[in-house]
Amino acid sequence: LSLAERLASYVVEGTKEGLLEDLQQALEEYPSPLAIINGPLMDGMAEVGRLFNDNQLIVAEVLQSAEVMKTSVSFLEPFMEKSVESSSKGKVILATVKGDVHDIGKNLVDIILSNNGYDVVDLGIKVAPADLIEAVRREKPDVVGLSGLLVKSAQQMVLTAQDLREAGIDLPILVGGAALSRKFTTNKIAPEYNGLVVYAKDAMDGLSLANRVLN
Ligand code: B1M
Questions:
Q1: How many CB atoms lie under 10 A from the CB of residue 191?
Q2: Bridge partners of 94?
Q3: Is 74 a catalytic residue?
Q4: Ligand 1 pocket member 148 (CB < 6 A)
């Protein structure tokens, strides 16, 4: 197998044997750590999603794939580019919405924003609107970032936007995750909110949108 195929297969098989050695080699061959994640590792994840959908994988196996992804991201993180900002570019609260446990994408957004001058407060997964509102009042962020991968999470984002509006919050909201699209964001979430709602297709897009919105 080629290096790319091996990297994808660790994710698909949910095995870590040989993973770190191949990641080390990939660091030499790929233009950046993020290119390793967005390329072969995400290809593996897409295949996991397909197999899971076809009932060829069970949740326990998908969890092992998620572990491989998390180990890989932790291994690669120290090699990612970090900007040396003298002051913070802004504060971002991140959360995976109520009812949703998927956090690999959110954690990637956390790393990319933190490495690029933002203060990030990560509220974790299954964050109910009331907890988000409390955290916004406590932390006084400049942006609220919401992640969701389930179809029902897209609907949950609409409810969360309504609750934020009712709480008088109108900070920019950055939304992302496989459950969403720009169209959904514009047609369903934005009309329910008083502030700006922007959709990021991936973590780097999230960074450039945060930069555009705040700086
Ligand atoms: Co789940 N799962 N899962 N799962 N899982 C999906 C999402 C699914 C599409 C798989 C499938 O059926 N094909 C499907 C959803 C179907 C639907 O709603 N239409 C699904 C399902 C059904 C479920 C369960 C219901 C299964 C069950 O229990 N029967 C269950 C849900 C539990 C719950 O949430 N209540 C479940 C559980 C799990 C695991 C726990 C086993 C595990 C998650 C582990 C974890 O996250 N800690 C898991 C996984 C791994 C997946 C797949 C295979 C991979 C997701 C992933 O990590 N991708 C997924 C299929 C797929 O997406 N191919 C699937 C890699 C990650 C880097 O990408 O999160 O999209 P992603 O993030 C991207 C962008 O979206 C963006 O940036 C990242 C890239 O740079 N982004 C943002 C994300 N958030 C952002 C926020 C931003 C900006 C950008 O700003 C704030």
A1: 10
A2: 122, 145
A3: no
A4: no
Strand partners, 95: 146
Is the minimum distance from the CB of 11 to ligand 1 under 6 angstroms? no
Given the residues 72, 102, 110, 142, the one annotated as active site: 102
Compute, in angstroms, the gap from residue 59 CA to the centroid of ligand 1.
12
Amino acid making up residue 183: K
Query: Residue 173, SS3?
Result: strand
| CB-ligand 1 contact for 147 (6 Å cutoff) | yes
Q: Is position 32 annotated as part of the catalytic site?
A: no
Tens of pLDDT, residues 100-118: 999 999 999 999 999 999 9
Question: Contact, 117 vs 83, CB < 8 A?
Answer: yes
Distance from the alpha carbon of residue 150 to the mean position of ligand 1, in angstroms: 7
Nearest alpha-carbon partner for 123 in 108, 105, 104, 136? 136
100 in catalytic set = yes
| Sequence letter at residue 201 | K
171-185 tens-digit pLDDT:
999 999 998 999 999
The structure's pTM equals 0.96
Q: What Å distances lie between residue 33 and 21, 29, 83, 144, 196, CA to CA?
A: 14, 10, 15, 26, 31
Position of tokens 């955290």? 135
Catalytic, out of 9, 65, 72, 100: 100
For residue 127, the 8-state DSSP code is B
